[in-house]
Automatic annotation (TrEMBL):
GO MF: hypoxanthine phosphoribosyltransferase activity; magnesium ion binding; nucleotide binding
Subcellular location: Cytoplasm
NCBIfam families per the UniProt record, alphabetical: HGPRTase
Main localization, broad class: cytoplasm
Location of the Phosphoribosyltransferase domain: 41-181
Alphabetized UniProt keyword annotations: Cytoplasm, Glycosyltransferase, Magnesium, Metal-binding, Nucleotide-binding, Purine salvage, Transferase
Keyword Ligase belongs to the record: no
Keyword Cytoplasm recorded: yes
Pathway in which the depicted protein is active: Purine metabolism; IMP biosynthesis via salvage pathway; IMP from hypoxanthine: step 1/1
SUPFAM superfamilies: PRTase-like
CDD domains membership: PRTases_typeI
Name of the protein in question: Hypoxanthine phosphoribosyltransferase
Amino acid sequence: MEDHIEKILFTAHQISERITELASEITLNFSPYTITNNEEALLSSNSSWAAPVVVGVATGAFLFLADLVRKIKLPISVDFVRVESYGSGTVSSGKPKISCDLKIDVTGKHVILVEDIVDTGNTLSCLIKHLKSKGASSISVCTLLDKPSKRKVNFELVGEGKFYCGFECPDYFVVGYGLDFAELYRNLPYVGILKPEMYS
Ligand code: 5GP
Ligand code: MG
Ligand code: MG
């Protein structure tokens, strides 16, 4: 399988280190504690604190989500949605469809959407509208990769929601660490570029 890869863009080690940083940011931003003089003090507004719901976009986000949530030091819930837009090709259909909805009720909850990669923005825009209509009180996005040069649709975060991004990705079709070509290569521990002859 390794010989199908032209170039490694992000190694397993780089990914792991970056996830540690993202998880610390998320832990800090969603913490019900303030940390003063090395003592953790509960915020006075703690009575309204609700565990964030981390929602992975299946299938691509499964490894990223698994590694990320293990480094978040807060009680959280985990759920998945399934969105289809790519089929087996390398060009987005531009019409994402939610083919499997959440199990958890997100009304009044802080949602963190976890994606493998943001490309045109169609998938996130569709999902954010959907979660907003369900009454999520904030919607953040945490994506491993972002290809800002490919953006066609701008999505708006909801409430206090923030955008967390692992790495900016150059404009190649990438595979590995959850990302597939025709449902293959998701199990590579790194993100890389597939050799052109593998597409045919
Ligand atoms: P968007 O809706 O933003 O155009 O695309 C989002 C989805 O398209 C991602 O969640 C991912 O599944 C797929 N995608 C976009 N770019 C790539 C890429 O370079 N490689 C792979 N394997 N999937 C991609
Ligand atoms: Mg995805
Ligand atoms: Mg795919």
